[in-house]
Structure formats: C-alpha cells, structure tokens
Amino acid sequence: MSVEQRVYHYSAVMMGSPILLTLFENNESLARDVFRLIKQQENLFTVNRAHSEVMSVNQAAGVHPVVLSAPVFSLICQAKAVSLLANSCFNLTIGPLVKRWKIGFQGDRVPPADEIATLLAITDPRQVVVDVDTQSVFLTQPGMEIDLGAIAKGYIADRVRDYLRQQQVENALINLGGNVHTLGGVQASNGWAIGLKKPFAAADALVGVIEVRDKSVVTSGIYERYFMQQGRCYHHILDPKTGYPLDNELLSVTIISDRSLDGDIYTTLLYGMGVVQGSAYLADKPDIEAIFVTRDREVIFSSQRQFAFQLLDTDYRLSPLPQA
Ligand code: ADP
Ligand code: MG
Asked: Residue 34: which domain range?
C-alpha cells in the first residue's frame, strides 16, 4: 500500500459478523448507506430471526407454497440447482441439521445418531418445489428448512459491489465476515492485500497474503466455528450425506472470483470435493480459482491467473497441485 494513500475504515456488526468497509475518501454517509443496504438484504434471507422471506417459506413447510420477491426466489433457485449437482456437498435444505448441531452457539454437543438420521430424511433438495409462474417456493415435508447461510453473504457482497460502482466509487473493499469483495486496488500496487488466516491460531495470524484487483475473495474454514468433544473437532460445514461435519484433508478453501456468490457456492462445493477433484472441477472455469490449505500444512492453488500470493508463515509451504 502506498504511504500517501489515505484509507478510511468503517465498521459494524451484522449477521453475527464484523463488517468492514474501506474507502479512499472520508464519506460517512456512503458508509451508512452501504450498511443500510446490507441490513435490508439480510432481512430477506436470515433464518436466525422469526421474520424473513426465507423464514416464511420454512414456517409453511408441508402446508403451502409462499410467494417470494424476485431476489429471494432467484437465490433459492440457484441454491437448489447447486444442491442437485452430482455429488454436491452443498444442500440448501441443511437447516434442520444446522439448528440441531448448534455449532458455534452455546450448548453444542454431538447429537444422538438416531436424531441425525431423522433429520437427514428431511434434508432433500428435490423436495423444494419452485414455481416460476407464481414465483413461489414450497417445502413438501413438514420440518424442512432452507438455510442460505453459506451463500447469503456472497449474494449481499455482490449487491454492495454493484451499489458502490453505481455511486462511481473506484476503489473500495468490503469484508462481510470472511467474504471480501474489492473494487479497484490500492494505487501504486497490484491490488488489495487480503490476509489468509492461519487456522487454529491467533485471530491476526496469517498463512499469507492474497493480492487481487476487482475480485471477490471468500474463505471458508473449519476453524471459524467449531467445538471440541473427546478430542475431536466438530465444525460448521456439514456433509449432507452423513449429517456430520465434513471430514477430509482440508482446513480451509478460498475462492477468488468475479462474483462473491460464486465464491460462496464454490467454497462449500470444493470443501466436499477436496484438492484434486475440486481443482479438476474448476479446470473449465478460468475465472474461478481456489486456494486450499490442508491439514498437512500445504497451500495449494487450483491455478493462479488472477491473484498474487505471498507466503508469510514458515509452518506452511506452497505445494504443487497433486496429480489425479
Ligand atoms: P461462514 O462464512 O459463516 O463461516 P460458510 O460460508 O462457510 O459460513 O457457510 C457455513 C454455513 O452454511 C453454516 O453455518 C450453515 O448455516 C450452512 N451450511 C452448513 N453446511 C452446509 C451445506 N453442506 N450446504 C449448505 N449450507 C451449509
Ligand atoms: Mg460460504
């Protein structure tokens, strides 16, 4: 970052996460408008309060379809499509399991296996009936719940980016608790520098720094929300096939892309696929790239066209992509 460049930071806490907006001008009213936009968007999608459009669909599960606004309907349709991909680990009907596990909230413990099995039975994306003509969604089984927690922040980050562009802002960074979106870059440098967190370490400890221009950078890691029981780590990304947290070689997945919604979708999808299969999946998607951090303390890129990376932590090493 050039020393002459003045940056202004604005922050708030929303959706249970810290939100940070960085601008190159002192513009509090713009920051206020951005936070208002985020709040308004969150109100559509949240399942942590009694009222939202998504909650109204969940509350009518097994009873009747609910007519939705265009953005909510569209995001549910996209989430359903991703859930139906072959071997997808993303599942928009994961809600009942997420609520039962309560990972990251007080009182979290491994639920009894029979309860998990019962909830798995109502975790089926095919039971989400979408009707384009009426713009309505119907969950066919009582107890079903849509949870867009894995992708709402990405969708909202894209709306913030659009709004800032509309306001002719050329350089800005928005961090929605792990979803970072950037406009332009810091002058006299390649772009914005975004820290890649060191798993299970101090909050400010970094594995390295990712540099991008005009890109979204989304990280999902098992160290973000978890609890320990009998020496095992139970984290917040659930495997919809088993009902238990995904268990593989990964500590985190970062996606660099134009749309933050893609970042959110692909972090979850690739989590389920792992390094080799996940990278192969991105081979024909040149504008979507992944950085994997593994339990063996390796940092592996699916490809590297749109970002620069500087490794900072000597506990980790950069490794080539293993061959399939
Ligand atoms: P965060 O950025 O808050 O850490 P992520 O983007 O990693 O969140 O998404 C995790 C959230 O997604 C969980 O808290 C839960 O609400 C939801 N979730 C968990 N497992 C799945 C899954 N397999 N498919 C879709 N959503 C999931
Ligand atoms: Mg996500």
From this structure: 1-45+148-176
In the structure, what pLDDT confidence band is assigned to residue 4 with cuts at 50, 70 and 90?
A: low
Residue among 90, 91, 116, 237 whose CB has most ligand 1 atoms within 8 A, to mutate:
237
Q: In terms of pLDDT, which residue wins out, 300 or 104?
A: 300
Q: How confident is the model at residue 1 (pLDDT cuts 50, 70, 90)?
A: very low
Contact assessment for residue 139 and residue 127, using Cβ atoms and an 8 Å cutoff: yes
Same domain for 191 and 171: no
CATH number at residue 137: 1.10.3980.10
- pLDDT at residue 224, rounded to an integer: 84
* Same structural domain, 211 and 311: yes
Q: Answer yes or no: do 263 and 276 share one domain.
A: yes
Do residues 62 and 112 both lie within one domain? yes
Rounded distance between C-alpha atoms, residue 250 and residue 246, angstroms:
9
Written as six digits, the tokens of 197 are: 């967190």
- As a whole number, mean pLDDT of residues 9-25 equals 90
What are the φ/ψ torsions at residue 45 (nearest 5 degrees)? Answer: -110, -15
Q: Do 154 and 300 have their domain in common?
A: no
Same structural domain for residues 72 and 139?
Answer: yes
Dihedral of alpha carbons 50, 53, 57, 63, sign: positive
Q: Whose CA is nearest to atom 5 of ligand 1?
A: 150
Give residue 255 CA to ligand 2 midpoint distance, Å.
10
pLDDT band for position 202 (cuts 50, 70, 90): very high
